[in-house]
Amino acid sequence: SEANPVKRAAKKITESLQGDGSAPADGIPGRPAPEPPSAAEPTEPREPLPAKPDQSGPDTVSPTGQPTGADQARVAQSGSYLTNAQGTRLYDTDHSLKAGPRGPVLLQDHHLREKVMHFDHERIPERVVHARGAGAHGVFQSYGTAASVTKAGFLAPDVETPVFVRFSTVVGSRGSADTVRDTRGFATKFYTSEGVFDLVGNNIPVFFIQDAIKFPDVVHAAKPHPDREIPQAQSAHDTFWDFVSLHTEATHHTIFFMGDRGIPRSYRMMEGFGVHTFRLVNAEGGTTLVKFHWKPKLGVHSLVWDEAQTINGVDPDFHRRDLADAIEAGAYPQWELGIQTFPDTPEQTFEGIDLLDPTNIVPEELAPVQPIGLMTLNRNPSNFFAETEQVAFHVGHLVPGIDITDDPLLAGRLFSYLDTQITRLGGPNFPQLPINRPQAPVNDMLRDGMHQTAVHRGVAPYRPNSLDGGCPFTAGADTSAFIEAPVRIPEASKVREAPESFADHFSQPRRFWLSMSPVEREHIIGAYTFELGKCYEQAIRERTLQVLANIDPELCAGVAEGLGLPAPEPTVPLADVAPSPALSQIGGTWPVDGRVIGIVVGPDGDLDGVHAVREAVLEAGMVPLVVAPTGGSLGSGGSALTVQRSYVTARSIEFDAVLLAGAPAVGSDTTGARDGKGAPLGAQRTAADPRIGLLLTEAFRHGKAIGAWAGGEAALEAAGVPTDAPGVVVADSGSAALEQLRELLGSHRVWERFTTGS
Ligand code: HDD
């Protein structure tokens, strides 16, 4: 036998591969033939998918859930044989090629190298802002009501257009939590028959800055401190408040997200805004200035701060999960698209408000939002990376009939969104990625470059040409985009300065403050107090109090009191502005679709009642979650009830309302805490399980409706929740309790429970 160990090992490998030399029906010569596949597995290699016609429409998703039949082929892992990237079949992907089972790994392992090389490059740079997001597909149905002001084909009557929407937070990294205090992105890609139109908006109608040249500054200030990279996804730190207290044009945006809009209950319950003023062009060439608004059918609702912070630990994917679950359950979220319209006058102002200043709103009471279409999100992405991560929005993706204005913030965005994709998506061919492909024929003369996937034919990608028959030809002005409205530019000199009309930074924030209900004002005071309380620099706190004094003395005094500092006097006259009631989120009633009802039931609870209530909750388009002491099921036989949350996994933040079906289990402390003598507290049985006690007190403090029947009120009493408090219902049956809860949920929370009332 061979003395050299390496040669010996190599010989052994060769022998094991050669065997007796006979090739089995399948598999590698010398290896036993693979087990016959089970009936559930594919038995025959399938034909490869047909080649995709160059740049045809996005074809990236299989329907929600497991595809069946022909669609099965679209599940990437379902083919019969594993291959490498070159289509060569592989017999083993679990072991590296080694010199003997315990010997060194050989460099010649081509498969190992390819597999690890590809893995090493799976990540692409996250978005520099809006890194954390969630997406969904849907459809936009035009009402046709905008047809008189725009020739955009997708806004003509009864036109349906596929859309993809990505919601996001701004500041945090890709893996950060969902319910941080932040602005939310609301970006929509319309795959229209005239090309892609992107509406890249936020859930707040104004922006921090008036000029894009300040964007790196505001983002550097909001991102974690560069030395230690903390805090993650927070504005509650010195650099942020340093910047916004010095740069007072940020005041309006800042008060918006110190308000409840900074912590939305759900992406499904947010408004969206195009922020800038856009210019619409109609078939006759007439122009109108507009602001775009998305109005959610479910109303605009928020978390409370305490709840938001707990969610970040308990379920950091709260918003992402909420969106996907709602779509999966068929509770498709809907928004109406609306426009505020303004005459396109040379001044580009409306009622004295400069329409080119993106820190301004135009109150809806002065210019009503006119609905022009309905968007329904009805399909979850099937691959997060391919769709949600690779989608590339750009404010310059415009279609005929929609044009830009001279808002200086918009101008810089027109550069930034194209530019950023070069780093993020690795080159200029990102429009060829399936999620970014237009659903209109593409006939460009852009060629080559990184990641080119099109095989362009012909020899003359230039104009004019005679070699390719002079093609392609340009379209007439009536069907083309980028026809600039002939706006007159007054004679001017080149300057680096802002117009005088951009100088008032306080009257619009004051309007926002005056438009809030008492409970919303209290939340705003709480938010500023929290955020500034997290700053280390006294000077920054004091400077911010000065900004607040210039908005409103009550606001300033409230925050100053919380910080233990004197409230300064205003340094500008307080603006005499009328409130805009449309800015308040409180006071109406809304549909309860997709609301989550926790049904807490103990071992002796009313199971029949729970069955009936579950059905009623589902019938009302809401989501029931049964909570019981342990997992598994309650009851037996046909009437067994599946437990969805045990006392260990249930937390109040997941529920919009709570129902108690009988007295929950007598419990014991499960935290592992010990009493003064070192005995485990868990040994002392308490009147109601402490985890349910916590669930109830949290739900109560967060203004959630609570109902009880069949003795469930005992748990309320044990938890110290008054049964006669507003929004606490004790009823004879589960269905009677649910009926009242439903009523209460229509106004989102039991607002009377908050200290100021409203
Ligand atoms: Fe921006 C992403 C919204 C100003 C530069 N922005 C981004 C996204 C949204 C917005 C929703 C995420 C898109 C997605 O989901 O992929 N941005 C806004 C709004 C603004 C705004 C409503 C003001 C009205 N943005 C703004 C300015 C600049 C940028 C002034 C630069 C000068 N924004 C970017 C960016 C991002 C981006 C760096 C990061 C990832 C991307 O574009 O694709 O280009």
From TrEMBL:
SMART domains: Catalase
GO cellular component labels: cytosol
Enzyme nomenclature, EC number: 1.11.1.6
Region of interest (Disordered), residue spans: 1-76
Chain residues that bind heme: 127, 166, 215, 413, 417, 424
Domain Catalase core: 83-471
Keyword ATP-binding: no
Keywords: Heme, Hydrogen peroxide, Iron, Metal-binding, Oxidoreductase, Peroxidase
Catalytic activity reported: 2 H2O2 = O2 + 2 H2O
Gene3D superfamilies xref list: 1.20.1370.20, 3.40.50.880, Catalase core domain
PROSITE patterns named among the record's database cross-references: CATALASE_1, CATALASE_2, CATALASE_3
Biased composition (Polar residues): 57-76
A GO molecular-function annotation: heme binding
Enzyme class: oxidoreductase
Linked residues for 3'-histidyl-3-tyrosine (His-Tyr): 394-417
Cofactors, names only: heme
A Pfam entry, by short name: Catalase-rel
Any one biological process term the GO annotation gives: response to oxidative stress
Catalytic center residues: 130, 202
Function statement: Decomposes hydrogen peroxide into water and oxygen; serves to protect cells from the toxic effects of hydrogen peroxide.
Family the UniProt entry places it in: Belongs to the catalase family. HPII subfamily.
Name of protein: Catalase
The organism's taxonomic lineage, starting at the top: Bacteria, Bacillati, Actinomycetota, Actinomycetes, Kitasatosporales
